[in-house]
Amino acid sequence: MKLWILLLFLLAAACAAAFGWQALAADPGYVLIRLGATSIETTLVFALAALLLAWGLLGLVWRLLRWPRAAWSRRARRRGRERIASGLVALAEGRYQDALRDLERASHQTGLRAPALLAAARAAHARGDPERTDAALDEAATVAAPAALALRARFLLEQGKPDAALALLKREAKKSTLSPSALRQLVESALVCADHATARDALGALARSQVLTPATLASVEARVLAAALAAAPGTDRLNRLWSDLSRAQRRVPEAVAAYARRAAALGQMLAAISEIESALRRQWSERLARAYGELGEADADTRLRHAEGWLAAQPNSTGLLLTLGRLCIQCKLWGNAREYLQRALGIEPSAPLWESLGDCFAGQDDAAQAARCYRNALYVARGEPAENLGDADSRRLDTRASVIEERSAHGVPRLALPSAMHD
Q1: Rounded to whole angstroms, how far apart are CA atoms 364 and 356?
Q2: Model-level pTM greater than 0.90?
Q3: What confidence tens digit (pLDDT) does each residue in 149-175 have?
Q4: Structural domains counted in the chain
């Protein structure tokens, strides 16, 4: 198809040239140029050809005159790209002095000024040179103010000055809209400074920017909601915060756990229990299963009965077994507590499990075994192997009755045989 269009175009051009030449041959036109006593006579065709030739010659002369400057500019741009590339590599390798030298030289190139100055500020900060860091950020602020602000706030956070970072970002937020990176720093600094209202407002703006992945945004949101609920000063403020959350936010496990712990601490045990139980009915969560046993000693027997009802569906949940052990300790059911905790230790040892088992032995006035369990809690927390308790019950511990359900990529259950689990 394109070939036929090209042929038709060439045919039309040939026809136009033929008719044009015939017309010009019949009347080539007449041009008279008179300047004082001098006059120039020629045909229109020759005049047009002379103008085109003169235009071409002038363009060629102009290019020849500009060639040295253009060559110098191309060389400067190439050198600037080479310097910023080598500076970024040196920054990644930790050669901060070399990075500073190359990046500061690259910053003299107009198109590379902003990225070179920002990278130079990073190199100076990593090198521990606050004066050069501030100088680079001040220069970068003249060409890339939002990026320089976000980077300055990040440096203040890394230096352990969250209050200064928060004050800087809040002051700038009143003047203009913060960049997504600055919003992230505002959330982090507000969390450290316990300014939960600011953190929640910045979180909303950060979510609207849609720069974070859903998983990362969910993680930040969970931290902000949990911190705000855990810091509620009283019952009224806690309930107001909880009611202001959206339905999706009230289903975040971290938020539910924080609300339940704070509600229990303020004497609202029924509300705390109800929220965790409702959340676990919707979807199982190890975090909420552990939080169910961290609400204090009130209604321990009722919570124990509810938790035991979940064991059939979650036989290998270490969070649930830990909660059952803690609730049994609160109810002084020492034998059941040891059974649950030792079973959980056989599945996945952890410091809280050893600590709770130590509490169980301490409740039975077995100080020696309690001390061993507390030591094991420290060992596990440090990543070291735990020592054997040496009692008969722990040596006979067998968790083969717990069958772990696995599913394939298509959702088909795959049940591992107990013997295969221990081979």
Answers
A1: 13
A2: no
A3: 999 999 999 999 999 999 999 998 888
A4: 2
